[in-house]
Amino acid sequence: MRPRTLNEFVGQSHLLGPRKFLANALKGQKLPSLILWGPPGSGKTTLARLLAEQVGAELISLSAVLSGVKDIRAAIARVKRAGPLFAKTTILFVDEIHRFNKSQQDALLPHVERGTITLIGATTENPSFEVNSALLSRCKILVLEALDDSSIRDIVTNALDDQTRGLGDLELTLTEQASNAIVSAASGDARVALNTLETAARAVAADDRDAIRHKDVEEAMQRRVILYDKSGEQHYNTVSAFIKSMRGSDPDAALYYMNRMLEGGEDPLFIFRRILIFASEDIGNADPQALQIALTCMQAFQAMGLPEGVLPMTQAVTYLACAPKSNAVIVAYGKSRQDALNHGNLPVPLHILNAPTALQKKLGHGRGYKYPHNFEGNYVHEEYLPEPLRGRRYYEPSENGAEAKIAQRLREMRAQTDPQDPGES
């Protein structure tokens, strides 16, 4: 079921769509050296083959798992021998290029530099860490995305109906629940989806049945498939349970719901976005490190990828669940925003307006402003809010964690009387 043309290729519209990078490159019938970085089953190998066909290039394929410097040299020798005979560009495709060590990658470098070959490397690992910088600088990195649910569903449907290359001769139907199970189990990997479909279909045909059901998919996968509708009620219920578990300082429940989402095929970066929001909304200044830890863990996840990336995600979830809680930040935002909406453009107090011109000074701009750094402790009581809002309190720190110190400092500052100004600035 590999696509035979780019028109049959599913997904990666951000690269192949109109006026996108590959679409533009193909118009000129010449490709630069490329590194295709993406998760398993996203179409890296197929895309390399189709690109070579599209530009009329000779394609030589190597697997970095099975090949060494000797194989690279043999491939280059083959290109040089064929060069005088054919006016074709040669594309050397190296699958799992991150498996090549430094010397193996260095063996490619001079041939890429001289243009003897156009290199297309495929990798599931971050090339910034796994590919030599010298080689990387001579390649364009293209990031392939995991196939979305709609794309996986299309691939499954095509395979089930295609009588030439697929399973059409079995004349089977697929229940909606079984289709959802295959999509969920695939997690964006077309190979997993097709292998699951074929295994389930052969078993159903052997039983002389005509419909593939959810239990057939589970049997084919040899594991329970969590059905998780990423756009439906179950999605929102699980996310809500995840957030409420962290808010309730229950790391065990939070981890359970985290794993339900992951195993159901949820986008890990969606989970991280919820984690980042939670760090500000439910912890805030009670633990100022919480947001930084959440952000760092997300960056670590992006560098690691799956499956190892679940470790920094787990670290973030457990830290945030156990951290002191405060919703003072979101409450302060809500109150201050409401006043901004309700009261419109209230005039800024004159004494805190800038006065860069003589006229503005004459009008009283900046007159009586107390420069905090001229006072002990770099603080002096002053009115900064517009007159109708004087005395408003938006931010009320909790007595939890580090925010208790902020609350104490605010109490002390607010209790101060207006001291003698040692000089205006």
TrEMBL record:
Entry keywords, A to Z: ATP-binding, DNA replication, Nucleotide-binding
Record's keyword annotation contains ATP-binding: yes
InterPro entries listed in its UniProt record: AAA+_ATPase, AAA_assoc_2, AAA_ATPase_RarA/MGS1/WRNIP1, ATPase_AAA_core, DNA_pol3_clamp-load_cplx_C, MgsA_C, P-loop_NTPase
Gene Ontology BP term (one): DNA synthesis involved in DNA repair
CDD domains tied to this protein: AAA (cd00009), HLD_clamp_RarA (cd18139)
Occurrences of domain AAA+ ATPase (ranges): 30-147
Function, in words: DNA-dependent ATPase that plays important roles in cellular responses to stalled DNA replication processes.
Stored PANTHER family: ATPASE WRNIP1 (PTHR13779:SF7), WERNER HELICASE-INTERACTING PROTEIN 1 FAMILY MEMBER (PTHR13779)
Name of the protein in its database record: Replication-associated recombination protein A
Native organism taxonomy: Bacteria, Deltaproteobacteria, Bradymonadales, Bradymonadaceae, Bradymonas
